[in-house]
Input
Amino acid sequence: MSTPPVTPEPIIQVCTGLWAAGVLKGAVELHVFDQLTTEPRDAAGLGQVLQVPSEGLQILLDALVALEFLAHTPEGYTLTPVSAEFLVSSKPTYLGTFAAEILGDSTLYDLVQPIPAGGQ
Output
């Protein structure tokens, strides 16, 4: 019986998990989901409302589509059932504050700090 090959898959999953978390955090902080509750919008229109450059926003929106938090239709970006239920701040089921607080906590990423040179 042979052993399966060793792959970097666990490392890649962790790294892409952090990327995905950063995408969600950015969208929550910009209130992207709130702005899409009434109608689909393209990156340019949403960028004007949010007062952010549409080029960078386009990347964020496409990442949210890849993560299935948004859908992209011919009319523009729209909410998915998950984002409509849990990422719109006016809903009682809103989890955006939770996500922003958890993902904004630097101890999540910096559990071990180096000891300064010459000290403990």
